[in-house]
Amino acid sequence: MKNFIFAIVITALFSSCYQQERNCKDFKTGKFKFEHEINGKKEVTYFERTENLQIETFNGKTDTASVRWVNDCEYILQKTHPKNMLEQKAIHMKILTTSQDSYTFEFSIVGDTNKQKGTVTKLK
Questions:
Q1: Third-level CATH fold of 21-122
Q2: Beta carbons within 8 Å of 26's beta carbon, 6+ residues apart
Q3: Domain ranges within the chain, ordered by starting residue
Q4: Mean of pLDDT values over 51-63
């Protein structure tokens, strides 16, 4: 009986310590695709990111934002030519998990607690 309880405790200990590996450096630069749903319709945003710049295209319109990396898995996006007050607000991006060719992230306006999630695929 003691061995059984010991095995359960060890299993729980190791499973609670497990963290999925994040290889965020693999996604700092490159060409990417972000698929998301808006009003029930699947939309796609394409973007290219360098160390300090992100250029994205959505519905035929192109926007540019500066990129400031906080650490290997978090960065701040700031539109370079905002068209309104909302676009003037910076967006905090945090990579949560990575796989070979994609990552899951959460984002929010800096200072806001309302976070959203998404998945980005790196294009070859």
A1: Lipocalin (2.40.128)
A2: 98, 122
A3: 21-122
A4: 94
